[in-house]
Amino acid sequence: MANARIGLLICLLLPGWAAASVSVVDDSGQTITLARPAQRIVSLAPHVTEMLYAVGAGSRLVGAVQYSDYPEAAKKLPRVGGYSQFDLEAIVALHPDLIVGWQSGNAASQVERLKELGIPLYLSEPRHLPDVASTMERLAILAGTAAEGETAARDFRRRLAKLQETYSRRAPLTAFYEVWNRPLMTVNGEHLIGDVMKLCGAANVFAKLPALTPTIGEEAVLAADPEVIVASGMNGERPQWLDEWKRWPRLQAVRQGNLYFVPPDLLHRPTPRILDGAERLCAEMDEARRKRGR
């Protein structure tokens, strides 16, 4: 009984002492264990920054890479370079107790340098829409905001389920997603955007290519003859180069007027906002289906 009282007293005097450590497995399969939830986090990808704010951990961010511009508060964070070439000295100077990186976006050589420094490093790489929810939960655990993470993940799953229910029986359409025009780039079926396309009933004509974001030629697009072409770009405005496909009037997408645009931030970032992008893409696919019957 005396031992029990002593144990209870310790827990009262040191709240969280007995369960301070947190541990999760990241998308590279590595286990990240912290002695206590992170208080100083550096983000090495815009989507990571956005996700941390989404799970209530924005106040723990002490640095982020360029283009970390959502929500508004993220614009004020100290910069540590870009996601493809970050500043190691700037990161170390911020004394982070957790770094969250992007497995396919950060330079592998720099990631290895970070690992050598011994700072806990979580690598993010959501490939499927449900992964967005699980990533939020794991990041929230590391940041000590598990309750907020569970709420954000639950809301995301509920919204995703509604979209799946709405579009699961739609007639498929062949589609080409144009990430960029020069060089001409797209996504394969393993990319998260490919998963969004599946959700909307858009059959990616380049789904079987081995690279996540392969470079292709115009001839490949003409040979695939997609019913729909969807472009991204650099900002929230429809890129002028999307209309360059009108040079090929026999292309199905051109003939049927199915040249669409979705703001890249809504599809290129695996965050809760990707469902905003999915809703827009699915609506465009429905518009293309209606044109089929004309």
Give the name of the CATH superfamily of the largest domain: Nitrogenase molybdenum iron protein domain
Number of domain units: 2
Low-confidence stretches: 1-18
Main pleated sheet: 4 strands, parallel
Structural class determined from secondary elements: alpha/beta
**What is the top-level CATH class of the largest domain?**
Alpha Beta
Our count of helices gives 11
List the helices and strands and how they pair.
Blueprint: H1 2-13, E1 22-25, E2 31-34, E3 41-43, H2 46-54, E4 61-64, H3 88-93, E5 98-102, H4 108-117, E6 121-124, H5 129-143, H6 146-167, E7 173-178, E8 180-181, E9 184-185, H7 192-199, E10 202-204, H8 218-224, E11 228-231, H9 252-255, E12 259-261, H10 264-267, H11 274-292
Parallel strand pairs: 3-4, 3-5, 5-6, 7-10, 7-11, 11-12
Antiparallel strand pairs: 1-2, 8-9
Helix pairs in contact: 5-6, 6-11
Structure description:
The chain has 294 residues and is α/β, with parallel strands linked by helices. It folds into two domains: 14-157, Rossmann fold (3-Layer(aba) Sandwich), CATH 3.40.50; 170-292, Rossmann fold, CATH 3.40.50.1980. 39% of the residues lie in helices and 15% in strands. A four-stranded parallel β-sheet has the order 4-3-5-6, sandwiched between helices. A four-stranded parallel β-sheet has the order 10-7-11-12. Helix 5 runs antiparallel to helix 6 (146-167) and helix 6 (146-167) packs parallel to helix 11 (274-292). The termini are far apart. Mean pLDDT is 92; it is low at 1-18.
